[in-house]
């Protein structure tokens, strides 16, 4: 169990809810397959395939949202509707009007929907009730919102907030690149994106390229700002930090994964061990990242800047 991306949110620390209570509330909306006319279905599934919807290891929780979608492209509906419209035109002597075509497409969609293929996927979220973190394995905040929306609808209360820091990631990353090194236990890797403030289309991307050269500083001096920067934390976890404080391309290095010994170990034990290792590293990484970004804004300051940048 290793997350590839991390969209991070704040819960009260500690979050006063038990795993059993959370499991009971998630059970109100267990996953059920799409009905014959449902284009999509969402609900909670067990992360490990048993009956439990909250998988707890060492005080850390894992939950999973199941999503099923019917694959019925609009182009297929239009094609079938157009074919029927031609038949109708031949019978009545003139083409169907706009209203009739709309009704025809709706009829075709209803007929085809039960026969459409379905696709299922899972989204995972990690909850640290003691530290007050909620992390979703999603490549963007928009995708993470798919899970959060269902979570809000399911729980009696979800006191969730965006994490806001004293310094923006853009300002911090610019200082690190200008100085040639990151703060704290972070080191700069070899991937970066610089984007012009004046012209959003003007961008420079470095891939597997040393970032301590004069060319990078020249782009900074010319007004380009970093929107992505590859970093490594404590020689244990590498990732790409974005201007929205998203964590992408999350990779737990060999020094971490070597702690897993899969010899004579069943799948469930190995899963739990991996989850424990991952969450242990994230509980070190996230506070350290917030610290090098100047710490969290106080509640009143965060509220006043709610329209600025999300974490």
UniProtKB/TrEMBL annotation:
Entry keyword Cytoplasm: yes
Subcellular location: Cytoplasm, Nucleoid
One of the GO biological process terms: DNA recombination
Keyword presence, Amino-acid biosynthesis: no
Family annotation (InterPro entries): RdgC
Entry's Gene Ontology molecular function annotations: double-stranded DNA binding
GO cellular component term of the entry, any: cytoplasm
Keywords: Cytoplasm, DNA recombination
Pfam families with a match to the protein in the record: RdgC
Domain of life: Bacteria
Chief location: cytoplasm
HAMAP family for the chain: RdgC
Function: May be involved in recombination.
Family: Belongs to the RdgC family.
Name recorded for this polypeptide: Recombination-associated protein RdgC
